[in-house]
TrEMBL record:
One of its GO terms (molecular function) is N-acetylglucosaminylphosphatidylinositol deacetylase activity. Its EC number is 3.5.1.89. This is N-acetylglucosaminylphosphatidylinositol deacetylase. Transmembrane segments: none annotated. The gene is Pigl. Belongs to the PIGL family. GO terms for cellular component: endoplasmic reticulum; membrane. One of its GO terms (biological process) is GPI anchor biosynthetic process. It comes from Machaerirhynchus nigripectus.
Length: 186
């Protein structure tokens, strides 16, 4: 729930506001508030527990595409890395089959997973200039935001007022992730 600084309730409301800016209805937002999954940049979450929760959500919502962090977690945040590990574990290990699937198939055959590429510090903060680099490098998907989409993403980020520390303000100004995102299939 984002309760690292005892701001869980505030951060839930900020998430809903941010999603509203992005056109995501509150009914499509799920916040998992689990005591064994604390918001803490130094805590690695239990892979099996998180994988089970993710798979339950995928099944309940009939989701066919998951976008998550790569093994670097974009910022190295242990919770982000744990999410990648859990999704990778569930794709490669857990024998979950949707009820309508043919025998022998697995959920990863009908639910694709894209991981957001972590880039070095230089590339992370060169904003639109990274479009040139990203176009030249191998990837499975590349999303280049329009100017309007970039402004919408910035408005959505600004909804997270409790998290807008000085370095996140720099992120709003210079991050390539608000302009270009390269992803790979898991």
């Amino acid at each position: 729930s984002g309760d690292y600084y005892n701001q869980g309730e505030i951060r839930k409301k900020e998430l809903e506001q941010s999603c509203c800016v992005l056109g995501i209805p509150a009914s499509d937002v799920t916040v998992i508030d689990h005591r064994d999954l604390p918001d803490n940049p130094a805590v690695e979450w239990d892979t099996q527990l998180l994988a089970t929760l993710v798979l339950k959500h995928i099944e309940a919502r009939n989701i066919n595409l998951v976008v998550t962090f790569d093994a670097g977690g974009v910022s190295g945040h242990a919770n982000h890395v744990s999410l990648h590990t859990a999704v990778r574990y569930s794709v490669c290990t857990l024998p979950w089959v949707p009820p309508w699937a043919a025998a022998g198939s697995a959920w990863c055959w009908w639910c694709r997973v894209l991981v957001l590429e972590s880039v070095n510090l230089f590339r992370k903060y060169i904003s639109f200039l990274d479009v040139l680099i990203s176009c030249l490098l191998p990837r499975d998907a590349l999303f280049i935001l329009t100017e309007e989409e970039t402004e919408q993403a910035k408005r959505a980020m600004r909804c997270h007022r409790s998290q807008l520390l000085w370095f996140r303000r720099l992120y709003l100004l210079f991050s390539r992730y608000l302009v270009v995102n390269s992803l790979r299939l898991l």
